[in-house]
Amino acid sequence: MIAIGGAIGVGLFLGSSVTIDLAGPGVIVSYLLGALIAIVMAYSLAEMAVVHPVAGSFGIYAETYLSPWAGFTVRATYGLVQIIAIGAEVTAVAIYFGFWFPQVPGWTWVMLMSAGLVAMNALQVGNFGEFEYWFALIKVLAIIVFIVLGLGLIFGLGPAPAIGLGNLTAHGGFVPFGWKGVWLALTLVITSYMGVEVIAVTAGEAQRPQESIPRAMRSIVFRLVIFYVLAVSIMLAMTPWDQSGTGITGSPFVRALSSVGIRGAASLMNLVVITAALSSANTNLYLTTRMLYSLARGRFAPAWLGRLSRNGVPRRALAVSTAGMLAAILLAIYAPSRAFLMLYGVAVAGMFFVWIIILLTHLAFRKALGPERVAQLPMRLHLFPYSTMLGIATLLGIAASTFYVDGLQYTVPAFAPFLLLISLAYWSIRRRSPAAPVMEGTGEDGTTAAQ
């Protein structure tokens, strides 16, 4: 449920506005392609998380199987990406509230929601898990209701005449911008699946990770595929894709329900997408806090970030993780119309780097583990190593495509100096403290994890 909370959020409910503009109904194919990449990522991470159920997750794996530099940069990048993503998500909440209260400044909602999320994450991790479970459950139930309601409207199962599937092809065809548009839409569609890695991050605090991690990974991706593909397909069938509004002005799901004239349905859906954005922000705040804590424990960040409160929460790391919220408040004041895409776009390139490093780590992990131990894993990625290498190549291709998407042209160039800066920081830290940190935790067979 935590992984669902991290994945189903603004990428689907708000970012789909941009992907529909790029691909039209063909965005359905984009979601299917994104799912294939997400499956490769989920299975690769599950293999490593079962053997090494540690709090540092893929940052520790990269450090162990690639290099200390890779371990440091992937954790620092992931921490920054999630901090920025938190800002994008609370900005999305402000956009959603504009559906009801267009006269209230967006920064007001950003500030109020940010304060509530920080208070929630300051509680014990068990309380966080309980809150996130209910947040995610609301999203899942809402999507199921949307799918059932949409199918009823499409096939005329109620008193209203059937809408049919004509909207998928009647307004310029299924792929009005060709297959190029379908591919370009992947630049943001793939971010809708970025959240499946949450399961690996929580492995260090999960009970019986050898059982729970494979089970969660198997189910999460396939549930996301069903939710995303069905929900987007029904939404596009309910209303013409070229009449659902352009740009980041609201959720296309809310607009779809507004267009069919069901009283109160649009407002209820707006409440759901607000919950979805808060859920994603809540999860990302948890992730960022744990990544900063992991860096501090590995002596790659100030030691005070690795201190725990009496209830076991790294509150100082939590305080630093609120930087994205502060940025969101400033952008909501000074650049409200561009705030969401500016924040969300910056996070995109960083996540491409993180996923590529994870897949490179998986190649090295399999080589180090050997065929005998691989055969004993409770969950294995099929068609290895070709599936992993194809995932890496596809991610590189998608990252290159951001240069051709309005609003994302500068995401990769902006990431390059950041990668240089954190690399310089890494070498500076290594010179002062040459001793490499060790991995803590045990593998599925009870042996100590690789040092």
End-to-end distance, in Å?
31 Å
- In percent, how helical is the residue content? 55-70%
What portion of residues belong to β-strands?
Answer: under 5%
Mean pLDDT score, rounded?
79
* C-alpha Rg (nearest Å): 21 Å
Number of H/I helices? 18
Question: Which sequence of SSEs, written as H and E, runs from N to C?
Answer: HHHHHHHHHHHHHHHHHH
Uncertain runs are 440-451
Structural class: mainly alpha
Question: Count the strands?
Answer: 0
Tertiary shape: globular
Oligomer: single chain
Could you describe the largest sheet, including whether it forms a barrel?
Answer: none
Keywords:
451 residues; mainly alpha; 18 helices; 69% helix; disordered C terminus
What does this structure look like?
By secondary structure, this protein is mostly helical. 69% of the residues lie in helices and 0% in strands. The chain is built from 18 helices and no strands. The protein has helices spanning 2-7, 10-13, 16-23, 27-51, 58-65, 68-97, 106-121, 125-155, 178-193, 198-201, 209-238, 252-260, 265-297, 315-320, 323-334, 339-375, 386-401, 411-432. 52% of the residues are buried.
Quick summary of this structure?
Helix content is 69%, strand content 0%.
List the helices and strands and how they pair.
Blueprint: H1 2-7, H2 10-13, H3 16-23, H4 27-51, H5 58-65, H6 68-97, H7 106-121, H8 125-155, H9 178-193, H10 198-201, H11 209-238, H12 252-260, H13 265-297, H14 315-320, H15 323-334, H16 339-375, H17 386-401, H18 411-432
Helix pairs in contact: 3-9, 4-9, 4-11, 4-16, 4-17, 5-6, 5-16, 6-7, 6-13, 6-15, 6-16, 6-18, 7-13, 7-15, 8-11, 8-13, 11-12, 12-13, 16-17, 16-18
